[in-house]
Amino acid sequence: MRIPIVFSFNDKYTVPAGVCITSLLKNARDGVVFDIHILHAGNRLSSHSKNKISQLEKHFDNCTIHYINVYDAFKNEYEVRNVSIESYYRLLIPDLLKHYSIVLYSDVDIIYNSDISGLLEINMNKVSIAGVQEYPNKCTKMASAYIKSLNLEPGEYVNAGILLFNNDKINIDGVFRKKLPQLLGKKLLYQDQDILNILFKGQIKFLSASYNYNLNSIMQDIHIAKPHVFHYTLNKPWSKPKLFGDAWWDCYKESIFYDEAEYFSFYKQNYENFELLVNIGSQLKKYGIYKLYYFIKKVQCTITNLLHRQSYKNLRR
């Protein structure tokens, strides 16, 4: 069984991408081969980075790795929340990989815990994409207001970290290619994720949360002991302590990308004063000073709300 899968990243994410792909290949069942396609801009992914990733082919016999240069595609698109233009490259999948009926897309801030080949057995006949709901059970007022401003419903909004593309349906319908240019250039808060939700409204199949498990999943009261996928949204485990971060570091240590000095430097920098900070936090809470935290959170929420409103105005232009 051969599975086409797409990643897109730049030099900054070479090691995280390598660790992500390592976890994918390590957990694949016998007989599954991944045809890995890496979308990149020629000036943003160096030969050195490509060579490092390509070393995986020497360590695993269940993959082929191909690089597709998208040149300056989306170079002027809106960037926000430290999400780079590489995120937009997934919008090219129906065109660049149209020779595949179904294609799997994956972010690189992900760790695979088990075989995911079962995803390719899902019936996609009547849908254009498949992914995991962002808000299956509950949604904050601000997030709900923003999603509704896009003429979408929170319960029907998909997280784009793991996606299945039904290229056959997308290209036959032609709506995607026709309407995509109308949304590019809009300053949408969640960029291409918003675009995908808008364009494929009513054409999305929702997968089990096990295929895109993150902190938000727990906040949604979804409890899965061993999900197929850990998705590290917001802060990344290689830069800051993170929920489920141990899974990333365990895979990193066993990968060809492991650097002992980097590993111990991370723990020294992030945990050197850990107990002291916990004790300070406990004392602040005890004496009520921790209310300052809630004030700061309120300010952050206000700023986020303003961003949501601005994104709504940009969409309506």
UniProtKB/TrEMBL annotation:
Pfam families: Glyco_transf_8. This is Lipopolysaccharide biosynthesis protein, LPS:glycosyltransferase. Transmembrane segments: none annotated. Keywords: Glycosyltransferase, Metal-binding, Transferase. One of its GO terms (molecular function) is metal ion binding. CDD domains: GT8_A4GalT_like (cd04194). InterPro entries: Glyco_trans_8, Glycosyltrans_8_dom-fam, Nucleotide-diphossugar_trans.
